[in-house]
Structure formats: structure tokens, C-alpha cells
Design a protein that fits this description.
126 residues, mainly alpha
Length: 126
């Protein structure tokens, strides 16, 4: 059962990655089957002087892939503009005034009210 779950997770991740890297899959399948595509599917196979070698089929597949990506609402990327506001500081040339007479709460300077144990804890022997 555990093996089936792992296999299912790996398969699911692989499918998701294939969906995201669709153009890479098209290029890889073209390179693997380039001889077959050039010999059987190429529009210019009767004209060897063009040296097409199936690139026309690759272009068609890439156009189909791009159209499918545009139809998918989840892959459409929206440009979101983020505006950051910053208060404009004016430097007058004078040193800033700090009132040091007010009492500051500095809890980190206070001594702890408990006494920490300095020895290392040893569990009881059984």
C-alpha cells in the first residue's frame, strides 16, 4: 500500500511538471523523432534543397501548444502593479532632538526574578 502511494505521488508530480514544461516536451519529442518527422510528416520532404528536416512540423506543434496554454485559464498571467508609498523626509540640517529624561522600559536589562539552574540535568537511574 505504501508503495502504491509513493508511485501515485511520483506520477502526479510528473504529470504536473509535464503540464508546466509543455514546450520542452514538444522539443524533446521532435528531437527524438526527427528522422521520422523529416521522412514522413514534413511538408517540404519532396524539396530537399530547403533543408527543413521537419522544422515546419515543430513550428505547428509549438503553435498548438501555445494556443492550448492561452485557452487554459490557470496559465494566464496577470500583471499586478504594486505601488509602494514612502513618506518623504525633509532634512533641515539640524541634529534630531531626543528626550532622554523620559523613563524607558528596558525589560531585557532587568535581572531575572528566578534563579537559573547552572548544573546539567541528569535523568534518574533506573
Amino acid at each position: 500500500m505504501q508503495r502504491v502511494k509513493k508511485l501515485f505521488c511520483i506520477l502526479l508530480c510528473f504529470i504536473i511538471l509535464l503540464q508546466n514544461f509543455g514546450t520542452a516536451v514538444v522539443f524533446i519529442s521532435y528531437k527524438i523523432n526527427q528522422a521520422y518527422i523529416a521522412a514522413n510528416l514534413c511538408e517540404n520532404r519532396n524539396n530537399p534543397a530547403m533543408h527543413c528536416n521537419g522544422k515546419c512540423q515543430l513550428r505547428k506543434q509549438l503553435q498548438r501548444e501555445e494556443q492550448q496554454e492561452q485557452k487554459n485559464p490557470y496559465t494566464q498571467k496577470e500583471n499586478k502593479e504594486v505601488t509602494l508609498f514612502c513618506e518623504q523626509l525633509v532634512f533641515t540640517g539640524e541634529a534630531p532632538y531626543f528626550d532622554i529624561t523620559t523613563e524607558q522600559n528596558s525589560f531585557y536589562l532587568m535581572k531575572p526574578t528566578y534563579s537559573p539552574v547552572n548544573s546539567i540535568f541528569h535523568p534518574p537511574l533506573c
